[in-house]
Amino acid sequence: MDIDAAPLRSDRRAVTERSFLVPAPESADRVGFRGPLAVRVFLRNEGSRIRADIEAHARCEAPCDRCLQPVAFAVELRYTEEFVTPEQAARDGIEGGETDDGDVRTVVYQNDRIELDSGLRQNLELALPGKHLCREDCLGLCPRCGKNLNAGPCGCADQDEPSGPRLLALADAMRRAKKRESE
Fold first, then answer.
1. 161 DSSP assignment
2. Residues of 106-141 as b/e, b for ≥16 C-beta within 10 angstroms?
3. What is the pLDDT of residues 85-124, one digit of tens each?
């Protein structure tokens, strides 16, 4: 998503707003996007740089980390980027095309084209939640039979025998220890 910076550069007090629907990016970390991203950009000429205040909204879906049921959620972004010409970047000591002071990323633009895709992609990835739960008290799946425990008990919990070779070995060791204590 590119924006023509020429009209902004010609007027030192220029302010403009643009709205876009951006095609959803490739799914990241099991997150699927449900429709395009709604992006709104407020651009302001600040003399030696152009400031872009960016807002974006995405509808997403991911499997619950406990029970694997689909979880729908929204992601809201708000961030700021500044754009400078190569000449201004040289005066400011910006090397490699961009700097990031933690709050505002400064990007070098050329040929009066401001490119927003890279910053949008980075900020979207940072805004995605690290854990997806269908609900806070999700019970997850039974480790033995795989039944979704939110739908009710599975019957495996009534059995004393643990599942898995490591737990079987532990249960066997505990039985031997109890047997020795009773002797």
1. S
2. bbbbeeeebebeebbeebbeeebeeebbbeeebeeb
3. 888 888 877 766 556 666 788 888 888 888 888 888 888 8
